Amino acid sequence: MGREFSWWHDFFPDFRPVFGIVSPKATAEQTRYIMKKLHLKPGSSFLDCPCGVGRISLPLARKGVRVTGVDIMPSYLEEVHKKAARQGLKVNLVHGDMRHINFKNQFDGAGNIWTSFGFFEKESDNQLVIKKAYQALKPGGRFLLHVINRDWIIAHFEAKGWFEVKGMRVLEERSFDYRTSTLIGTWHFIRDGREAVHEIPLRLYSYHELHRMFEAAGFVDIQGYGSIKDEPVTRNQRMIYLFGTKPKKK
Fold it and tell me: Measured between alpha carbons, how far is 21 from 166 in angstroms, rounded to an integer?
């Protein structure tokens, strides 16, 4: 699998501090929105795949949702486990690739959150991520894909950008392959005079493409928004919140 297989294993340990750019207030607001839109309540079951360091998993568990978190990074799962233990929360954690999960009709809701999508070179693999979420849901269950909007990237393209978080400077140099709709980001993580560099290919999608992918997976009642205020998706909305429902059995 070459570069496709290896990049996230090398990238995400260095990326870890970047989770700190999302404020606790923004996370709390997003958590409330997810519960509302996915019709979750205490006792509901939710699949967070991939779960990262538990930014959404832990607040949902605190609200009484029965959370299963899946991630390919063992260090992230260990961090979630330790946080949950300290906070007296229960989160079921599974080490695995989001293409290869095998849950069937188990969850009231599921989410792929914060642009954890478009990682794979094969279009069929990205479609498989959506299909696996569909299969994991109970009939009537709802899925959220929360991903950066390709059309926003094109409209607001910048060849480079940087920010600082938790004592680390992050520089990203960007190019865009219009043939494959792939954003090539060269990330520089600089801390204490040391620099780590990673080149990351990310397949970006427009709203209409994602809508078709949801339909192909079997979802109905597909709804897309550009913010947690349910604003419409436009090129001026950076993110897409796309929801789909698994049909109830007749």
Answer: 9
pTM (two decimals): 0.95
At which of 165, 183, 200 does a domain end? 200
Phi, psi of 72 (to 5 degrees): -90, -10
* Nearest C-alpha neighbor of 69 from the set 182, 38, 84, 176: 84
| Amino acid in the structure at residue 216 | A
* Domains of the chain: total: 2
Phi, psi angle pair for 145, to nearest 5°: -110, 120
User: Domain check: are 91 and 194 in the same one?
Assistant: no
Strand, helix or coil at 135? helix
pLDDT digits (tens, 9 = 90+) for 97-129: 999 999 999 999 999 999 999 999 999 999 999
Domain range holding 165? Answer: 153-200
Are 190 and 167 members of one domain?
yes
Secondary structure element (H or E) that encloses residue 77, with its range: helix 74-87
